[in-house]
Amino acid sequence: MASYYRRVFRPSIREYLHVIPGKKSVFGLAKLVWNLVKPNAVTYPVIVCVLTTKCSLKCAHCNNLMPCFDKPYHIPADQVISDIRTLLSHTDYCIKLELLGGEPFVYPELGKVIDAFKDHPKVMCIAFTTNATVIPDEALLDQIAALKCKKIVISDYGVPTQKPDEFMAACKAKGIPCSHTVSEYWADPGNTECRGKGKAQLAMEYNQCYSSRYCRTMLNGKIYTCARASSLADLGLMDGEHDSFDIRKPRTDKEFRKELRKFLTIDYADACNYCDHAKRIRIPAGEQLQ
């Protein structure tokens, strides 16, 4: 129960209160709480969905390991849409659906994915995280502007090809909420070698990590403990069985919900064995590979 409160209940309330715009009603909050505590309830604070492993930057210390993909690729929109719909069919609410890359604005079918979930009753907000190297065209900006709840976050590392001011101006012209986060330093995730940590150490690191609450990531029909885990598994650098939940596995609704709740509250993540974030070693943000 403590793990569910820490990983699901509290993050869901936080996202609802601080991400969803407008005044919150007591009824709305009570409805959300009920959908968090009722038997077999599954409410997602954040679903991070990887659309593409292609990125417009080549960050040497990319947490999500995008430069490690020798042949980066786009996930077909029909596959993305089908996987999200399957998950939502066994979920009560998703507070925030975050569309991610790579760089989401290099994904050619982004508009199709947006259109599929623009009015979905279980999705409260659709968000995008971008490096602001690619300015969306008018049609795509209009699609985003038409969403009932939307949010764009610019991650600015000071790379010359980034255009945060131009990106923010384009969003402002369409009335799209856009925040600008400037990072001078990152916590170094380290290389992709296994560190050989024991389960007690893995559990401590995972339970202290932001990703265990806000960054469970969907890629190719599976939900992973974090974005780094999804890339490690996709690259064949880690056996992702412990760190993933297979959306496409045939189950009854009751089985799906029970197994998903169990996954959301696992004690540790194998991905922490391939990550040094817990050491909090500072490195310059966004250093580019040649």
- Name the poorly predicted regions: none
> Which architecture would the CATH scheme give at its second level?
Alpha-Beta Barrel
Order of helices and strands: HHEHEHEHEHEEHHEEHEHE
The overall pLDDT, averaged over residues, is 96
- What's the number of domains? 1
List the helices and strands and how they pair.
Layout (H helix, E strand, L loop, with lengths): L1 H17 L7 H12 L5 E8 L26 H13 L3 E8 L9 H8 L5 E8 L7 H8 L4 E7 L7 H11 L3 E5 L2 E3 L11 H10 L2 H4 L2 E3 L2 E3 L2 H8 L9 E3 L6 H12 L17 E3 L6
Parallel strand pairs: 1-2, 1-7, 2-3, 3-4, 4-5
Antiparallel strand pairs: 6-10, 7-8, 8-9
3D structure, described in words:
This protein is α/β, with parallel strands linked by helices and 290 residues long. It has a single domain, classed as Aldolase class I (TIM Barrel), CATH 3.20.20.70. Helix content is 36%, strand content 18%. The protein has 10 helices and 10 strands. The strands form 2 sheets. An 8-stranded mixed sheet has the order 5-4-3-2-1-7-8-9, with helices on both faces. A two-stranded antiparallel sheet has the order 6-10. Strand 2, helix 4 and strand 3 form a beta-alpha-beta unit. The radius of gyration is 18 Å and the shape is globular. The model has no long low-confidence stretch (mean pLDDT 96).
